[in-house]
Structures are given as structure tokens and as C-alpha cells.
Design brief:
Blueprint: H1 10-18, H2 21-29, H3 34-40, H4 51-68, H5 75-98, E1 103-104, E2 107-108, H6 110-114, H7 116-136, H8 140-159, H9 167-196, H10 201-228, H11 231-234, H12 240-243, H13 249-257, H14 261-266, H15 274-284, H16 287-304, H17 313-327
Helix pairs in contact: 1-4, 1-17, 3-7, 4-5, 4-9, 4-17, 5-7, 5-9, 8-9, 9-10, 10-16, 10-17, 13-15, 13-16, 16-17
This protein binds farnesyl diphosphate and magnesium ion (2 copies).
Residues 95, 99, 101 line the site of one magnesium ion.
Family: Belongs to the FPP/GGPP synthase family.
Keywords: Isoprene biosynthesis, Magnesium, Metal-binding, Transferase
GO molecular function: metal ion binding; prenyltransferase activity
Length: 330
């Protein structure tokens, strides 16, 4: 692998495959009422990180190189990249309703701009179009794998609504929730393109585990940024998790030093001063460092999953992406 030039950015390699991604998604969403089209396209604005399609495309090409020594993307694999981005975007339309979010990516949220009812319907519409595209691939295995994502997304949102009484269950509940709400989409998309590329079960599992670990790391960093970043940079308000009653990794780690947090976690930070107290504890503990460390460990695990794949530029880019996941600021 030494003689392969590392690409300057993991995105550069995936870019040629993705130039038409947003145009294609908008096309797929067209042909309905003008308003439904406008709302469902509202977050198809080129402002997202496109992380899911990039990982999907690079995994696909790394698998193709491994399986049949060419790294051309199959058109079915490109469809998965679109479906992935559409499932993600649909879930954001719904999420901003659930979270009562006023802004996203530095602009008014869809729910703020068009109202809750229309946002929900636009999300449903986008999801149904995505599922139609998936169906057209005519591959039952791939359909099952990506349908699992929808079950996981809904279950993840539900898990987020509850607090675990038992201390030893709290962290595993949090990690399981993080897998379901974030990592499942990435893991299963990676597996889907591996299936389409003709990979055997072992390679499929390696791709799945790569996506799973990168996804969990991504969510850990998201939860880190909710405390550490400024809302100007991320384009959405910060410290929202606490305000929504959610204890994420930084708070759960801070508990070790400040057990006074436990009753607050259990009442979901509902009493006056709870949110401020928890923020203070997080910043006075090593909760943020521990969260980053755990994310880093998941990224190292993700990298180790690629070990047996044939050398390729795409494989190097998948490794480089983990660095982005850890060090991103928005
Ligand atoms: C963002 O999390 C939200 C998600 C990753 C998933 C949301 C899932 C649903 C609403 C389930 C139903 C949706 C579909 C399409 C099946 P966040 O609120 O922590 O992040 P944010 O800061 O970006 O809002
Ligand atoms: Mg949200
Ligand atoms: Mg949410």
C-alpha cells in the first residue's frame, strides 16, 4: 500500500460519482405538487456534509476493487448512495418536528418555515420515493438490509425518550441508541453496496462493521459538539440535548465525578437550573475528553475492519475519513 499516493481529501475520490447526487434526488422528488416538491427538497441544499453518500461510494469502490479488481461504481451502488441520503434527509424533516428545532444548517428549519404537518408529510413523501428507488433495484437482500435502518431509526428515537434507572444499563442504552439512530444507516448502506458488489458474507460483515463503528464515532462527536461547539459554526443551536432531557456521553462520563447528576438525569433535567448545572459539571469533568477518546477507539476499530480488503485509494480514503469524523467542528 506504500506506493499508493494518499488522496488530498477523501472527498475528492468520491466527488466524480456524487456531482449529480442532489440533482438526481431533486429529480426523483419532482412530479408531485409544487409545494410538496419544495418542502421535500428544502434540505437537499448542498449544505449537508454528504458524509453518508461519500462513505457509501468509497466502500462500494473499495469492495469492487477487492472482488473484481476494478473500482468503477455500479449504477445500483450509486442508487444506494442516493437512497441513503434521502433516508437521512427524511429523518431530519421528522427530527426537527420532534425536537421543535427552529434552525438547521444556518437557516430556518423546515418545520419553522412550512409548519409541522407539512414537514412530516414531506418527510413521508421523501421516504416513500426512496423506498421506490430501493425496490427498483430488485434485490430482496438489499431491501431487507436497508429496511432494517427504518426500524432502527424509529426505535432509536423511542429509546431516546426514556431514562434507564440502573446505572450499569445507562451507558449501554446510550450506545445502543446511538447505533440505532445514526450508525445503522451507515452500517447497512455499507453492507448493501458490498452485497451489490458481489462480496462474500465475510467482506459484507467487514463493511458493515466499518460503517457501524464510524457511525457510532460520528454520533459521539455530535454529542461532544453539542457541548463544545458554538452554534454559529454548527448552524443549529447547541446544548439542545440537555434541554430535550437527554443525557449523552459527556454527561454520563461526568457522572463519575459528579454523582449529583444522577437524579437530574432520571428526571430528564426538568427542574430549573438542571441544564446549567449539568453543563457546568461536564466542563469541570473530563467528560468531553472521554467522549472524544471513545469516538477515537471506535474509529480505530473501524480502520481495523478494512485490514483484509485489497489495497486501493478508496480504502485509504475510508481510513482518512475517520480522521474527519473525529476532528470535525460541525
Ligand atoms: C438527528 O438527531 C436525527 C436522527 C439521526 C434520526 C431521526 C429519526 C427519526 C425522526 C425517526 C423517523 C424517521 C424516518 C425517516 C424513518 P439529533 O436530533 O440528535 O441531531 P440534530 O442535532 O441534527 O437535530
Ligand atoms: Mg434534532
Ligand atoms: Mg432528535
Amino acid at each position: 500500500e506504500g506506493q499508493l499516493l494518499p488522496s488530498s481529501s477523501p472527498y475528492t475520490l468520491a466527488l466524480p460519482d456524487l456531482t449529480n447526487l442532489f440533482i438526481d434526488i431533486k429529480k426523483a422528488l419532482s412530479g408531485t405538487s409544487e409545494e410538496l416538491e419544495e418542502i421535500s427538497c428544502y434540505y437537499v441544499d448542498g449544505q449537508g456534509k454528504v458524509m453518508r453518500p461519500v462513505i457509501t461510494v468509497l466502500t462500494a469502490r473499495a469492495v469492487n476493487e477487492h472482488v473484481c479488481k476494478h473500482h468503477r461504481l455500479l449504477s445500483s451502488q450509486l442508487e444506494i448512495a442516493k437512497v441513503t441520503e434521502m433516508i437521512h434527509t427524511a429523518s431530519l424533516l421528522h427530527d426537527d418536528v420532534l425536537d421543535m428545532a427552529d434552525t438547521r444548517r444556518g437557516k430556518p428549519s423546515a418545520t419553522q418555515r412550512y409548519g409541522q404537518r407539512k414537514s412530516v408529510m414531506a418527510g413521508n413523501y421523501m421516504l416513500s420515493v426512496a423506498l421506490m428507488m430501493l425496490g427498483k433495484l430488485d434485490n430482496p437482500e438489499v431491501t431487507v438490509v436497508l429496511s432494517q435502518v427504518l426500524t432502527d431509526l424509529v426505535q432509536g428515537e423511542f429509546m431516546q425518550l426514556g431514562s434507564k434507572e440502573k446505572e450499569d444499563e445507562r451507558f449501554s442504552h446510550y450506545l445502543d441508541k446511538s447505533f440505532k439512530k445514526t450508525a445503522s444507516l451507515i452500517a447497512n448502506s455499507c453492507q448493501a453496496v458490498a452485497i451489490l458488489g458481489g462480496a462474500d458474507k465475510m467482506v459484507q460483515q467487514m463493511c458493515y462493521q466499518y460503517g457501524r463503528n464510524v457511525g457510532i464515532a460520528f454520533q459521539l462527536v455530535d454529542d461532544f459538539l453539542d457541548f463544545a461547539a458554538s452554534s454559529n459554526v454548527v448552524g443549529k443551536p447547541t446544548a439542545v440535548d440537555l434541554r430535550l432531557g437527554m443525557a449523552t456521553a459527556p454527561v454520563l462520563f461526568a457522572c463519575e465525578k459528579f454523582p449529583e447528576l444522577i437524579p437530574m438525569i432520571l428526571r430528564r433535567f426538568s427542574e430549573p437550573g438542571d441544564v446549567e448545572f449539568a453543563m457546568e459539571c461536564v466542563h469541570r469533568s473530563d467528560g468531553l475528553q472521554q467522549t472524544k477518546l471513545l469516538a477515537t477507539q471506535h474509529c480505530l476499530h473501524a480502520i481495523s475492519m478494512l485490514q483484509q480488503l485489497a489495497p486501493s485509494q478508496e480504502k485509504l480514503a475510508l481510513i482518512a475519513i475517520t480522521d474527519r469524523v473525529i476532528n470535525r467542528i460541525k
